[in-house]
Write a structure and sequence with these properties.
The structure holds two protein chains of two kinds. By secondary structure, chain A is α+β, with helices and mostly antiparallel strands. Chain A contains 15 helices and 19 strands. In chain B, helix 2 packs antiparallel against helix 4. The longest helix of chain B is centred in the N-terminal third of the chain and has 27 residues. Classes of the chains: A alpha+beta, B alpha+beta. At the A-B interface, strand 17, strand 18 and helix 15 of A face strand 4 of B.
Amino acid sequence: MVNNDLFADFSKQSPKGIVVIYAKLLFKAFKATWILLIIFIQRFSKFSEEALVYIYAGIGIFLVFFLIRAYFIYKNFLFKIDNGQFILKEGVLKKNNTSISFDRIQNINFKQNLIQQLINVYEVSIETAGSKDTEIAIKALSYDKAQALKTALSLVRKKTKQIELCDEQHKPLLKIGLKELFKVSLTENHLQNLLVFIALVFGVLQQLNDVFKGIGKDDVLGNYTDVNPTDIFNSLIFFIILMLILFVIGVLSSFVRVLLFHFNLTLFIKDDSFDITQGLLTKKSIILSKAKVQSITISTNPIKNKLGISFVTFKQAVSGKVKKQQHKLIRIIGCKVAQIKTIKELLYVENSVDDETTYTPDSYYALRMYFRSAMGIVILNGIILFLLKDVTWLWGNMFVIPLTFVLIHLKYKKAFYQFNKELLLIGKGRVETHITYLPFFKVQNIKINQTIFQKRKKVVNLVLQTASGKITLPCVEENRAITLYNYILYKVESSKESWM
Amino acid sequence: MEFSNIEILQLPDISKVTFKRIHKDYLKVLILSSLTLFSVLFFIVFLLKMNVEEVRMFPYVNYIYLILLLVFLVLIIAFGIGFSRRKYALRDKDVTYKSGVLIKKITTVPFSRIQHVEISEAPISRLFKLASLNVFTAGDSSNDLVIKGIKKEESLKIKEFINQQING
């Protein structure tokens, strides 16, 4: 079963990799020039025959050039396993030599985008910790070879542990079908999805607008956006219809997003790791070992709560200055109570925190939020009065002030923390409820901040820095914070377990 | 809470640790470097006033000098108050730094979580043979621990000590 010899010499990707690389190059080129293409198609009839020939020839040369480039990228991409190191050689003109020792490998993930799914190859990405280049992607490997590579890498890493490859016998802990997915998507945060959608649309419109302005056609899109605002606000029916349309778009975008990211979600549990597969266009398969998880967050909202479902976010360790949030977050949706229980048990075998005392932040926390929002609203009103000189806009306060008040109240009411000997539990949220579980020994460093106002109230902010971001306990009573500070340090310093 | 009665009593207490102040010369470094910065700013405003018509015509141009001076004074006062609060402590298993005028901060990094330690010397600090010690842990590097303004030899000693603790 040990396929180490298979990778003892340099090997290439599957020849199908050329297609994948080619597609990627083309996609990148398309992304950079799609606006030019639109202009080209629009003015198609205005070009002379001679010009068209040149344009086609140019495009043809580019296509061939990319194909040659893809071939050379493929040809120069070599990898092998040697002496406990994964060695990668790449680069056509600028040669690059990377070697990664096994103990720095954090995860080995399989991925399939649409093209990779069509030609049946797998992208293997190797995530590492402790360096700037956190991820190495091998674009195309056959399933057998991908598995073999994974086994080879994992085998050397955990010398004593045998990796079982008996997927068929395992029953998934969680499997979400299309019907279930639809149900889950209905309970999503539609407002957030709507905003994402609107931002996306505006981004594209903006880009188009810039281009058409550039070529002296600025009224092309002007017609769509030039609506007299007073007409809108005078017509209540229009407003209601608009709201309905926005609501429908919100629900639809929730559904599309859930479908794209979580299609065919399956979760297996093997030994001490999770095996998560999900995604429609890009199918992702992630092996998440228990030790790499820094904290988990279980989230729900009122509707989800009624249906008895919630979603779980795993936070992994990140290294260097990785800005991409999604890299360290792995989210699975539609978990039932029993499944949540299994996940929790697997991660934190220790007894539950249910019987422990619940602590809430000091009332100064609410006071501070009210004060800050009040300041914000006053300043906003000032700006509106100063700039627009129109008192009717101030009616907006009727809507904004109660909403802010309710949201702050909810946020304060939902904030709490609990702990037992091993585990800290932090609750937060406004409409949604997020509960984070953090084992003490995963803490990297710990901080207490106290403003002069907090000093008067004898409260502090306790900040726990983990490898996947910081967790703040706001406005904790001073003495309790110091006790916790001492205890967490004691737990971290006496812990024999590796945090990663 | 059972441990708060039994275990906590024996735990090392951060609030009872004797902290060490950073080197007194660092105050000079702070003042000197802000002096340099503000002289440059003053000079820029002066040059603009001499050479650019719009700036000379700007009615409040002399207030800019006043504002700059005010900011400078506030900064110096803040340094003066805050300086005695910049303290650090090394224990068997961790390193702690605290500081802050308006917001008091205290940070502790356990040795077992340190990725690496760096010593850096800024130009003005070098005149006084001072260095700063940067401690890095996993995760967001912006939130780690920096002790500015200790003697170079001292910083090397601490670095050596931490390295021993990590590897030993």
